[in-house]
Amino acid sequence: MPFYDFFRKYCFNFATPPQRVSVQQFSFYLSSEGEAQGCCGHSLNRNLNDKTTMIEIGLKHISEMTVTDQVTAIAMGSGDMAVLATPAMMALMENAAMLAVAPELPEGCTTVGGHIESSHLHSTAVGQRVTAIAEVTRIEGKKIEFAVSAYAGDTLIGEGTHLRFVVDRDRFMSRLG
Description:
By secondary structure, the chain is α+β, with helices and mostly antiparallel strands. A five-stranded antiparallel sheet has the order 4-6-7-8-5. A hairpin with a 5-residue loop joins strand 2 and strand 3.
């Protein structure tokens, strides 16, 4: 299924193609009836300044964890040493991105990861504290791009980019067979 069709199936419900309109960094669509539809098909005709419809470039979140045996490369099967696994570091980055925008989404909406790319520059031992930072860098309709990084203390251990899409939670889950 083509990428656009996938997100149209999960998020759009229009008889005719939507017309894109941007208001204060947040994109929404006009249905064939001319009613403004938000990311999840919720009406945005109420108060367009309502913070639930305001995802802005620069929104940030910091997620933290302590490296335990459960998130080591040995436990996760990504390596054979007792250090922070790359998949665990990237999951923490994803968590920070998800939480950065969650409070700004309309009711019934969530985000799903579409792509993540990161370096893993330094190893992190069991017991060390890891901090992941995600910052919104671009918004295009339902697509939200983030700069992500992870630190052990003051040491950068990984950095990259992450892409998330805003979806209607119920519609998305109903499509799973």
